[in-house]
Specification:
Blueprint (H helix, E strand, L loop, with lengths): L1 H21 L9 H24 L2 H42 L1 H26 L48 H6 L13 E4 L22 H7 L5 E4 L16 E2 L1 H8 L4 E7 L14 H6 E7 L1 H7 L7 E2 L2 E7 L6 H10 L1 H4 L5 E5 L3 E3 L3 H10 L5 E5 L6 H10 L5 H14 L16 E9 L2 H16 L4 H16 L4 E3 L1 H7 E3 L3 H10 L21 H5 L7 H18 L1
Parallel strand pairs: 1-2, 4-5, 4-8, 5-7, 10-12
Antiparallel strand pairs: 3-7, 6-7, 8-11, 9-13, 10-11
């Protein structure tokens, strides 16, 4: 059969040669219609080629074909070469990641963000013009085998004499690694995306729910609406009398300081001392990189500034930049301190992260290490320590009343109001919430709409009720969590005591100084003993011979003999 097929093919080739010699085109009897169509197409192509050659020379036709081929090659390089380059870059990134585990973590975050942007570019090439999707920080995990993954708290030391709170170890990353893991994009803000603030020229003080000239006088309906979380919100958040915080709003700040505060676009560490109540504590263990990139601000009133006068120059004491605040809106110093504590996002509108510490605290860890440990590693946007001893709001209120922190009637009114709204005592049923009472002297947070909303609502409760912010914390947190599934990272109090050291207030130091016994420098010389009188001179020098042991035995035997005779 193979020979027959070869014979047929050879015969066809032979007949084709013969027909070509005779000038006749080969005809296949099997498909006459297809042959006619093919011949017609050839004639049209020949006609087109002849027409092109008629109006253009051969050189021009060659150049035209060369341009078409070049364009095809260019298109092939653009589409296929780009994909190859992306593959090569990903291979290089993978190789770098294998050599450094921490780079692997950061690189994976960068690749995720870059991928979302590249997809939008490819869609634009196709012709679908959509804005690039927003990219958010979604957290990270330390590589397997990292010592912080297996770090556990050791048991507390068995010291019966010391039963109060104490610091515990915290697994920080080195400053360089913490800085490398700083997110390049903001975290996701659930529900709310745009948050603006109310400005009122004419305040309406006749409302049923109280307020102040600084925080405004919102009605009860406005307060309830502020807990209805929406994508875009406009709400009270202090500074209601002016369009720019710190300028004619109460809590007024010089324009030069406001300009410097606006230029802080990274990390800010802030504190405040009012009424010369504390002594400024200089941070320790701060890296040179943090000294150059982190903004350290200390807010003081006129009384504190007068106490510090002559102790600083160029508005700085150590790493702290001193900011003088005038026209404080409240007579209560603790309530004035809540303004920078809870409204740092309004005073520093361009900052990404903030770390608030009370004026009595000394910072002893680098800010980047603290942010990495309690925010970025936990994928949290606000972190605060829980109280070391109390977890229930009702117990906390009673402790405040017993300590005289606020008048009892105001405390009872606030607790009863929250109770009518649904506040219940803390129990294990609230897990994973670990406490309802924070230790509010330290707040670590990222400035995004959801965390800014939380601190605004928290400040409004402090402005409306008592200045004891521990009482209102859980109410604000739980109301937001019910609408957005957002919550706060509440870490251990002993971990907070690891990076801040609590000092005494000025009045306590003065009281301790009064109670301490006076110290005389140098100590007096000891008075020599007087010489003995003359009649005692020989007696003092006379030596009494020791009694012999044998004599004692003989005496005792004699005593026994005498006693027998008497019997």
């Amino acid at each position: 059969m193979s020979g027959g097929s070869l014979g047929i093919r050879s015969g066809s080739y032979g007949s084709l040669d013969k027909q070509g010699q005779n000038g006749v085109l080969p005809i296949q009897a099997a498909s006459a219609t297809r042959t006619k169509a093919y011949s017609k197409m050839l004639k049209e192509k020949e006609t087109l080629i002849h027409w092109i050659c008629k109006f253009a020379g051969r050189k021009k036709v060659g150049m035209l074909l060369l341009c078409v081929i070049s364009a095809a090659v260019f298109v092939w390089v653009v589409y296929f070469g780009e994909d190859q380059e992306n593959d090569n870059s990903s291979k290089v990134n993978d190789n770098l990641a294998l050599n450094n585990p921490l780079i692997n973590v950061v690189q994976s975050i960068r690749i995720d963000n870059w991928t979302s942007l590249s997809v939008s570019v490819k869609e634009t090439k196709v012709g679908v013009m959509h804005p690039p999707p927003p990219s958010y920080f979604l957290g990270y995990t330390l590589p397997p085998g990292h010592p912080c993954n297996t770090f556990t708290l050791p048991p507390p030391p068995a010291d019966k004499k010391r039963t109060g709170p104490r610091p515990c170890p915290v697994c920080y990353l080195p400053v360089e690694e913490a800085v490398a893991l700083m997110p390049k994009v903001p975290s996701f803000s659930p529900v709310i995306k745009i948050l603006t603030y109310i400005f009122e020229e004419n305040l309406n003080r006749e409302t049923e729910f109280g307020g102040s000239d600084f925080g405004g006088y919102p009605t009860l309906k406005q307060r309830n609406d502020s807990y209805d979380i929406r994508e875009s919100m406009n709400m009270h958040c202090g500074f209601v009398k002016g369009r720019k915080p710190g300028r004619g709003t109460g809590f007024d700040i010089d324009d030069s300081d406001l300009l410097e505060m606006e230029q802080c676009n990274g990390v800010v560490v802030a504190s405040a001392i009012f009424g010369a109540f504390d002594i400024i504590q200089q941070p320790r263990n701060i890296s040179e990189y943090s000294k150059q990139t982190v903004c350290f601000y200390m807010f003081v009133d006129e009384e504190t500034e007068a106490d510090l006068r002559g102790k600083y120059e160029n508005k700085k004491i150590g790493v702290w930049r001193i900011v003088l605040v005038r026209d404080l809106p409240y007579t209560d110093g603790r309530r004035n301190g809540k303004i920078p504590k809870l409204l740092l996002h309004r005073l520093f509108p361009n900052a990404r992260y903030s770390l608030w510490i009370d004026g009595k605290l000394e910072l002893v860890a680098d800010p980047y290490q603290i942010l990495e440990r309690f925010l970025w590693r936990k994928n949290a946007t606000l972190a605060i320590s829980r109280h070391y001893k109390r977890f229930d709001v009702f117990i906390e209120a009673e402790a405040n009343k017993a300590a005289g922190k606020y008048d009892n009637a105001s405390m009872d009114h606030q607790v009863e109001f929250y109770k009518r709204e649904g506040l219940t005592p803390y129990s294990e049923a609230k897990h994973p919430i670990t406490s309802d009472v924070p230790e509010g002297c330290v707040i670590i947070r990222e400035h995004i709409p959801i965390s800014n909303l939380f601190t605004c609502l928290w400040f409004n409760e402090v402005d409306r009720f008592t200045s004891r912010d521990q009482i209102s914390f859980s109410t604000v947190r739980d109301k937001i969590a019910a609408k957005t599934n957002w919550t706060v990272n509440m870490f251990l109090d002993c971990e907070r005591r690891n990076f801040v050291i609590q000092k005494y207030h000025k009045d306590v130091l003065a009281l301790l100084a009064q109670r301490a016994p006076p110290v005389i420098y140098p100590p007096p010389r000891p008075v020599p003993a007087p010489p003995p009188p003359p009649y005692m001179a020989n007696y003092s020098q006379r030596k009494v011979p020791p009694r012999r042991r044998r004599d004692r035995k003989s005496g005792s035997r004699h005593h026994r003999k005498v006693s027998k005779e008497i019997v």
